[in-house]
Design a protein that fits this description.
- The protein is an alpha/beta fold and 583 residues long.
- The chain is globular and about 80 Å long.
- It has 3 domains: 89 residues, Roll (Ubiquitin-like (UB roll)), CATH 3.10.20; 108 residues, Alpha-Beta Plaits, CATH 3.30.70; 355 residues, Rossmann fold (3-Layer(aba) Sandwich), CATH 3.40.50.
- The strands form 6 sheets. The chain has a 5-stranded mixed sheet with strand order 2-1-5-3-4, with helices on both faces.
Length: 583
Amino acid sequence: MDNYVSVFIDGKPIAVPAGTSVLKAADMAGVRIPRLCFLKGIHEEGNCRVCVVKIEGQRGLKPSCRTIVTDGMSIITDNKEIYDSVSTNLEMLAGNHKFECWKCSRETSCEFLDLLRRFSVDNRFSEDGYKHKEIRINDTSKAIVIDSSKCVMCGRCVSACEKYTGLGILNFNQRGSKTFVGPAQFHSLEDAGCIYCGKCIQSCPTGAIHEKDEIKSLERVFRDKSKTVVVQVAPAVRAALGEEFGYKIGSNVEGQMFAALKALGIHEIIDTNFAADLTIMEEGTEFINRLKNGGVLPMFTSCSPGWINYIETYYPEYLDNLSTCKSPQQMAGALIKTYYSDKLGVKPQDIVSVSIMPCIAKKAEARRPEMGRENYRDVDIVLTTRELARLIRHRGIAFAELEPIKPFGKLAEYTGAAPIFGATGGVMEAALRTVTEILEGHSTPVEFTEVRGLDDIKEATYKVAGIDVNVAVVHGGRAIKTFLEMMKKGEKQYHFVEFMGCTGGCVNGGGQPIINAYTQEKVDVRALRAKVLYNIDANTPFRKSHESEAIKAIYTDFLGEPNSHKAHELLHTSYEKRGFYSK
């Protein structure tokens, strides 16, 4: 075969493409070489020396992630020399790691711990070892904590921050035993310009970077009999939560998720999907008004708090392009503390509004000063998908054995347009379903497949009421910069643009279950999770937000009409330029 070479891996012949790394060749042969610092396409530096192999005829051991195969190469992946070398390297890393596994956010997904177990590494070094390195804990942000005592200096988070966002918020600071990862000069993450996408957390093989844990806050609320706990759940959570309990990637666990919340003792369960439909009514109406009345175009969606952080920090000149709509989380929170509070006969101050989100940035969003009124917040506690899973496990709830249920109440009803909010392009597609039908005055297509998929930037043009409407979908910080710089050149005029801070959208949010590096090389997790949401959409009786009877009812009973004075008071906000220190 042209451009293929023949190699031997543990004595077995295999043909692989020329230019393949030994690590990849072994994977193709079904041999799993251990790895720690390696993260495909993100960090391939060969620093940790955990993936070493023996190349016959060559001296010493070679890092398999950095060694390219040659024709006839004979590779040994496991012998006593390799085992002892990897064991020694892991022992040295363990000597600088503070073990608090019982309270670590990575208690069930720590790649480092898995390796220590695989190589039967004793913990004899760590008792005194980590005390010799300077410990720095950066917990000044509203969403993320960096704990250097658990850092193994692999560099994956540093590379992930740069590759996914292009911002370079994280780096190695100082030298020797004083080296630590974080923003320069130990600044807070917010001052450093972090958008809280959480890609650093997902890339870390240990618990050195994690979300601010709010489980204990919720547990304390459960024990306060004067409080009523109302929880909302984002669409993307149901597409990923099962992974924490052994379900395969791409499983819909919506029914078990709601059953688990009930078992935890939640008083009222609603669905953020309802607020997603509401967002389409508000944002779609806003877009139509701008289109008809000469408003600022293109209009940018405002559902992703990571994206909001990005534009406020790096491109504030485009703030007028942002929709004034709050995110579905904050819309739901505002309704919980007003409309739903009245329905329950409970004072807003006695309701604890909890959201379960796939997103780290949602924690910071809920604490924005404008997200509340009359001395109370619209959303009091935000748990990530991972935090919910930990809470379920800590309570001893057998998730897989739960009988699926559906939540009750008008704020739990939704159309098929709502769940696809969790996938890149979903907000745009949901908006187009409603906007085109309103403008055309008759039934229009349900599916706008051109805005689906995982390309960083997707574009499409639709003829709507005689107007060529140019739309775009952009996801991930690096792609956002590329698109905005392209837009500055004015080569093409757009009318409506969806932005998401995370690649793949919310299904790949920073608060979702962490997939180990090996599995990430095998499957596209984003596509599998997104498929769950599109399947829900396809099997929902009504697939356009304006068709929802529950949405119609809340406008009739409470809000009046889309973009009304009351709707603006509760469901809209404003954004402003924020500063950050100059590196």
